[in-house]
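@channel sequence for tomorrow's demo:
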Amino acid sequence: MSEEVINNLAKDDLEERKLEENKSEGNKLKDNLVKIVKLLAGLTMLAFVVHWAGLDSKEALEKILQADRTKLLIALFFVIVAQFLGIKRWQILAHALRIEANFLHVTKLHFVGLFCNNFLPSMGGDVVKAMYLTGKEKKHEAFLSIMLDRYVGLLVILLVASIAAFSLPNDTFHQNLSYATWAILLALIIGGLTALLFSELVAQTMERFKNLLEKYKKEHWPNKIRELSLLTKAFLKNYYVFGSSLLLSILAQGFAILAVHQLSIAVGAQIDASTMFVVVPIVLLISVLPISIGGLGTREVAFVYLLTNAYVSVGIDNDSAKSAAALVAFLWLAINLLVSLPGAISYSMINNKK
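structure tokens (generated this afternoon):
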């Protein structure tokens, strides 16, 4: 082979690598811009809630200082209990997928995920958790354990809400709330079953576009879909794991909802707990929508809208209802930020081991 040919091949290879690097940098820039837009959207919604509910006044600050501290501490305790129940659920799901991880390690990663979601929005908490759970080995199982953990959590909280909806009052607001809860639960169940039953069909369809997948380096997707489907079916057939996960989910979600109920009582807004068992699941579901980072802003808007209507339905005047709903939303945010702080220590410990 002549020297000129070798030089041309080397030149082509260098240009190809430069194109790949430019493409990668372009994707990173695009991702960063999306994250900035989401963050700004979340902050804008928070500012809207503060102004709309009148929390930028001296009276609002006095209401926060006058909140029942005992109820606030009870709410904090309930949130901590809910977190540890959720950690145990994730550990059980991970073990079912042949990932050996002790409770202490899973606990550290859970709080690292919370910390990243709340204080390092450029890093996805779930991605960090999966990355450190198994490293490069069994990374797909690690991601699946988190996906299953999320799905089971959402399914159970909606199931609890659907049952609680039967005990709601018969006014228009509560009836619409019930219908929305039942519709969302049905959609989630149908979506999960469809994804599981037709996974092979999806994989086969993707294989027909082999050239397109290779172009974008996604040729492994069909096999990964089959692999994830098999692992999910194995999880469903393991009755101990499935039952334990459901029980832990019910307890975890129950404590989280009761924590919000305590916050409501702390700011002087008395409301039936059954209403909270429907409102909170819908709020948490809305916060999952990819409108902002970590549900920031969307969660608070949903809380204020739903709780304001719930408070008005029990006789609280509109202005007081708005103020109380916003206080509950921001106190919930504050507690979750506080609970995620231990993740900073865990994050530094993990990074120091690298």
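heads up for whoever presents: The chain has one domain: 3-353.
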